Amino acid sequence: MSATYFTEDHEWLRVEDGLATVGITDYAQEQLGDLVFVELPEIGRSLSKGDTAVVVESVKAASDVYAPVDGEITEANDALSSEPALVNSSPRDGGWLWKMRLSDKSQLEGLMDEAGYKAMIG
Amino acid sequence: MTAGDTKTLPLEDMHQAAGARFGTFAGWHMPLTYPLGVFKEHLWTRQDAGLFDISHMCLFAVDGPQSAKLLSRACPLEAEPLAVGQGKLSFFLDENAGILDDLIVTRTGAERFIVVANAGNAESDEKHLREIAAGYDCSIAVLPFVFLALQGPKAEDVLKRAGFGPLPERFMTGLELDGGGFVSRSGYTGEDGFEIGLPLDHATTLAEKLLTDERVRWIGLAARDSLRLEAGLCLHGQDISPETDPVMAGLLWAIPKPLREKGGFIGAEALASLGNPKRRRTGLRPEGRLPVRAGAPLFDPAGKPVGTVTSGGFGPSVDHPVAMGLLDAELVLPRQPLHTEVRGQKIPITVHSLPFTPHRYRKG
């Protein structure tokens, strides 16, 4: 069974068996505009909450995507190397960014559910 | 960056209604993108006709018996022999030949010129020109126009179908309209197109009418930047500044040699005494897909610092990253290999001729 969480930095996490798939929300991709490059993280890298995990580059600017929780990177979405625009066209599905093994599941408690996130972006 | 200090475009409501996303540029609340998105907006302009609100830019009218004489002093420009309708790229230079601003000066009458200046320099340009004008028999007026640009291969046909005219027939020519207004065949995209200054009510009517043509879309500032960068055009404050002179900037072509020798304009002595520049502006092509941004350092193959990227981003038409920078002059050679650094990664980058996309101006 999976549960989806949202952060104030406009990321989503789909968590299943202690493994989180992370991406950015539709709202975030709209704000960033058309992406032309995604710098993917190294597999095996340990991240603390708030560390830069991925850098997404739009036509105009570079933006950091932060680790929403502590954990170790287990997989990156290689499809984005050739097709970064997947993040724009399918942010919640084909445009996922990375997967990570959670080190502290209690950190999920501070995150929002979809209704809370929608209320935040208004 | 408080809202109170930010200037709002007269057509802001139209941009809001069109779904624009806004950002601040040179003190103005500007549409950055519309729902089409920067990529498609860019390509749309190269294929059809893109409508830009460039009212942040400033138009001056210089009028009177000594208007040509004033402009020939204020700019490295021979204003007297310009034919009515003819426009020229020129500059305000400081005493060291540093570029205070780049301008387009168009003669619209025997004693009248229109000067188009950059948004970021509008106030200092006006002050500068008024100071120089003190001893000349002419007036300077800021024209309170909404300024629109329609750019792209369909621009002329769109304007004709909308019944708008008369239109200047060749690139870098311009005219004033009866009843108030200025149209020039110019732009900042590398495409054929027009820049049109009109009083608010006329501009609103024209914009509404143009947008009923299916070949026209609003285009935001983000695509304006990627279009001009592909076209190899400078952004003042970024690629050129008071720290760059026309030689470094690669813009000496805008100041003919006989004029440089004759002098008489502000900055002439300094310009004449410039030796070979240490650095020159050049196009740069980063290898791969990662955009290299303004401020990135340039290194020669031995790792020595040799310059800086001044503008960089992604070129949707060429489908690869594009950049411009100031580079040690002896390295400005075709395909000279260099490298830069982005977030600690070494990225190969090579000298590339400008523009990245061929200009398609109407010269005929």
Please explain how this structure is put together.
The complex is a heterodimer of chains A (122) and B (364). Chain A has helices at 26-32, 79-82, 86-89, 114-121, and strands spanning 3-6, 11-16, 19-24, 35-39, 46-47, 52-58, 62-66, 71-76, 98-102. Chain A has 122 residues and is α+β, with helices and mostly antiparallel strands. Chain A has one domain: RNA polymerase II/Efflux pump adaptor protein, barrel-sandwich hybrid domain (OB fold (Dihydrolipoamide Acetyltransferase, E2P), Beta Barrel), CATH 2.40.50.100. In chain A, the strands form two sheets. In chain A, strands 1-2-3-9-8-5 form a six-stranded antiparallel β-sheet. In chain A, strands 4-6-7 form a three-stranded antiparallel β-sheet, with no helix packed on it. In chain A, strand 1 and strand 2 form a beta hairpin. The longest helix of chain A is centred in the last third of the chain and has 8 residues, at 114-121. The model of chain A has no long low-confidence stretch (mean pLDDT 96). Chain B has nine helices and 20 strands. In chain B, helix 2 (38-47) packs across helix 7 (221-230). Chain B has helices at 12-17, 38-47, 67-74, 122-133, 155-161, 200-211, 221-230, 257-262, 268-273; strands spanning 7-8, 21-25, 28-33, 49-53, 58-63, 87-93, 99-109, 112-117, 139-142, 146-151, 174-176, 182-184, 193-198, 216-218, 279-286, 297-299, 305-315, 320-328, 337-342, 345-352. Chain B has three domains: 3-55 and 145-230, 2-Layer Sandwich (Gyrase A, domain 2); 57-141 and 245-274, 2-Layer Sandwich (Alpha-Beta Plaits), CATH 3.30.70; 278-352, Aminomethyltransferase beta-barrel domains (Elongation Factor Tu (Ef-tu), domain 3). In chain B, strands 11-12-13-10-4-14 form a six-stranded mixed β-sheet. Chain B has a six-stranded antiparallel beta barrel with strand order 15-18-17-16-19-20. Chain B has a five-stranded antiparallel β-sheet with strand order 6-7-8-5-9, with helices on one face. Chain B has 364 residues and is α+β, with helices and mostly antiparallel strands. At the A-B interface, strand 4 and strand 6 of A face helix 2 and helix 7 of B.
